[in-house]
Each structure stands twice: as structure tokens, then as C-alpha cells.
Specification:
5-stranded parallel β-sheet; 17% strand; alpha/beta
């Protein structure tokens, strides 16, 4: 390959899309086992590569020369092949520094806890020290400062996740309790898939300033492109591409009352945006071999909601799809949390008098559906990024959604 990314598991990676947007060259994702790495690095059949978990330190013995920054950090994420001679660089430094500075998360004079002790952690520690952190604590599972002893440091005001904890497909994982840090004012998570990790979710819930790793990924890729091509790329493209990638990789999850048009609108959106469409009720049928209505009538609503929750948890791990959800999905906080980790959530509103009640066990008749709406209205409103009224041609409604999505603050 000419250019690409090597790592052990890359199904979650957005790097190919980013490099295509930045420079347009062929950029491949190449998963390598540890035995394969030696063959690949010895063969040198590439012009330039990026390196991710777990090889940022493993590749270093194969390199003829390291940049001063890569030497200082002790980790490499970019390798350039110059006439058969391999040179190593660390562009993560540039990306992480850009991430902190553009998110206005204060570092100088602060005590910072860095979660993880691998190559990404080494980069974070170097940047934090250069930005004037008072004290940087490296937290690891078995180190002197671990996930039990870190709570002794009550002056921690910034937490940086430089570990893969919480990263796809292990969405929802988090090893730290933010409630135990009374001075906490910022969280920076290097993970970018899902967009809202459990760590970020907890920070947002407490009103703490936070940022995920997507802008770091784009910024370091920009610097890598410059090294690959010997061309200068303006910093102004970083935020633009970050938003483009975020909008294209986040799911669009439709919530709303039964009969509000979510499924039909979802299908139209999927065609207009060239995305996969998923109906959670259809996914439920495929998994459990009964419809949602049949499950409610035979097992009760509580049992149905448990099973529905598992479906939503799975569907929420997707990227770039359109998901039409069942009308009661918002009645469980866990469902909303799962949807929001990787989706723009859209509330499809429709006049109560126009909602169909046919085949709907929880909304049989106009009185029942009015009562249901009263119970759920606030839940829909609090769960969504924005609402759209379904009061006209569904193609027009879908166009409204597309327009509003472009204006969502990410």
C-alpha cells in the first residue's frame, strides 16, 4: 500500500475518511497481528503509515531515525519511508495539543490524571507538562497510582483518557468515578468512537467541560499528511473536516409517538443520505421471532422493555445509519443514554388526532393515545437534539431534518 494505518483492530477507525478528505490519496486500513508486524515493517512496502494501538512503541526498533519529539515522548504514530529508510514521528502531540487548546480546557497550574500508561499516555503527559500542568498523575490498573488510589488526589481538576477503555465495541465502559473529584473542571477523552463515551456522558451530566478525540484524530492526521506529502495544510481545515466526519459517522435516531411516521421518514432519509436504514421493531422481530406487540401481550410491557433495551444497545454501536425506534424507547433512561452515545436524536412530532392506533397494544383508542402522549412528551423533548413537525409531505419533512442536522452543535 502507499499510505495507511496499521494496528491490531481497526474496524472502528475513521482514519481512511479523514485522509481522503485531507489529501485524497489511497489510504488503507491494515490490521496486523504481532507476528505479522515484523514481516510488514521489514518489507517496508509503503510510502507512509500511521500507527495505532498497540504498536506505537513496538515499531520503534524498525526505524532508522526518530524525530526529536518522538524520542522525547518514546512513542511513534507516523512513519515515513524515504528511499527505504524509515523515519518515525509523533503527530499525536500536535493533535492532542490542538484538542486541548481549541476546547478551552485549562491545563496550566492544574493537577491532571491521565488514564492509561501506553504510547498515547506518554504523548499526553508530554503535552500536559509543556502546557504548564502543576502535576501529572499517570493512572494504570497495576501501577502505584491506580483506579483505587487515584481518589486520594482530591485536587485533580482535569482527567484525560489515554486508554482504549470505552472505545467501540466496548461502549459503556468507564473505570473512574467523576463524583469523587470536587475540583474537576475538564475531561478530555482520546476515544472518538463512540462520540459520547461513558466518561464523556458522565462529564456532560455534571456540566463539566469535555471533548472527545475526533478533533485530535483529524489534527494529527493533518500533520501526518504534511509529513507524507511535504505540503503545508492550513489549520483551518481541521474543524471543518472534524464536523464533516462527525456528521457522516453519527447515526440519525428517530424518536416519537407510535404512528408519527418515524419508519417512513427514516427510509426516505436513508435514501437521500445513502445510509443504511434500521427499524428497531424489525430488529426486535429478527432477534426474538415475535413482534413488539406480541411480546407485550404475551410477556408484559416490562419484559418487552428489557428485550428492547438490548436491541437498542446493539443498534446504538453502529455508525452512520438511520434508526427508527419504537414509541416507548424513551421510557428507559438506558435507551436514551445508548442512543445519544453515537447518534443525533430527532424527535418526530405529529398532531395527536392524526396518529394511527391500529395494531398498537399500548395505544388502543384516542383516549389511550392522548394519555400516552402526556406521559411521554417531556421524555421525547429531553432526549432529542431537536424536534421536527410531521405536518406535510414526508419528503419535505426529511429535508427539514437534513437541514437541521447540519446546524447541530457537536
Amino acid at each position: 500500500m502507499e499510505y495507511g494505518l496499521i494496528g491490531e483492530k481497526l474496524s472502528h477507525s475513521f482514519s481512511q475518511r479523514i485522509h481522503n478528505s485531507l489529501c485524497g490519496y489511497d489510504y488503507a486500513l491494515k490490521e496486523l497481528s504481532k507476528p505479522d508486524l515484523d514481516v510488514f515493517m521489514t518489507k517496508k512496502d509503503f510510502k507512509g503509515i500511521n500507527v495505532t494501538i498497540p504498536y506505537k512503541q513496538t515499531v520503534m526498533p524498525y526505524l532508522a531515525e526518530l524525530s526529536p519529539l518522538a524520542k522525547r515522548i518514546g512513542a511513534v504514530n507516523t512513519v515515513v519511508n524515504k528511499n527505504g529508510v524509515l523515519y518515525g514521528y509523533n503527530t499525536d502531540y500536535y493533535g492532542f495539543k490542538f484538542m486541548l487548546e481549541t476546547s478551552s480546557i485549562p491545563v496550566a497550574g492544574r493537577t491532571v490524571a491521565v488514564l492509561g500508561s501506553g504510547g498515547a499516555s506518554k504523548t499526553a503527559v508530554t503535552v500536559l507538562n509543556d502546557l504548564g500542568a502543576k502535576k501529572v498523575l499517570v493512572v494504570s490498573r497495576n501501577g502505584e497510582i491506580n483506579y483505587k488510589t487515584i481518589y486520594d488526589y482530591t485536587d485533580v481538576s482535569l482527567i484525560v483518557n489515554a486508554s482504549p477503555v470505552g472505545m467501540y465495541p466496548n461502549n459503556g465502559e468507564c473505570l473512574i468515578d467523576l463524583e469523587k473529584f470536587p475540583l474537576l473542571e475538564g475531561v478530555a477523552d482520546m476515544v472518538y468512537n463512540p462520540s459520547v463515551t461513558e466518561l464523556i456522558y458522565r462529564a456532560k451530566s455534571r456540566g463539566i467541560k469535555c471533548v472527545n478525540g475526533l478533533i485530535m484524530l483529524v489534527a494529527q492526521a493533518k500533520r501526518a499528511c504534511e509529513l507524507f506529502t511535504d505540503k503545508i495544510i492550513p489549520d483551518s481545515v481541521i474543524k471543518k473536516i472534524t464536523k464533516q466526519i462527525a456528521l457522516s459517522t453519527l447515526n440519525i435516531a428517530l424518536i416519537g409517538m407510535p404512528g408519527s411516521g418515524k419508519t417512513t421518514i427514516g427510509k426516505i432519509l436513508s435514501q437521500k443520505l445513502n445510509r443504511t436504514f434500521i427499524d428497531s421493531d424489525k430488529a426486535f422481530l429478527d432477534e426474538y421471532k415475535v413482534t413488539a406487540g406480541e411480546c407485550i401481550e404475551s410477556e408484559g410491557e416490562s419484559a418487552f422493555r428489557e428485550k428492547e433495551g438490548e436491541i437498542i444497545k446493539t443498534l446504538s454501536k453502529n455508525s452512520g445509519t438511520v434508526i427508527a425506534t419504537g414509541g416507548g424507547v424513551v421510557t428507559r433512561e438506558g435507551n436514551v443514554k445508548n442512543l445519544r452515545q453515537n447518534s443525533i436524536v430527532v424527535y418526530v412530532k405529529r398532531a395527536i388526532k392524526t396518529l394511527s392506533t391500529n395494531g398498537r397494544p399500548l395505544s388502543k383508542g384516542k383516549t389511550a393515545i392522548k394519555d400516552l402522549y402526556k406521559k411521554r412528551k417531556a421524555l421525547y423533548q429531553s432526549a432529542c437534539d431537536f424536534a421536527v413537525l410531521n405536518d406535510s409531505d414526508l419528503g419535505v419533512v426529511s429535508d427539514r431534518i437534513i437541514k437541521k442536522i447540519k446546524d447541530v452543535k457537536l
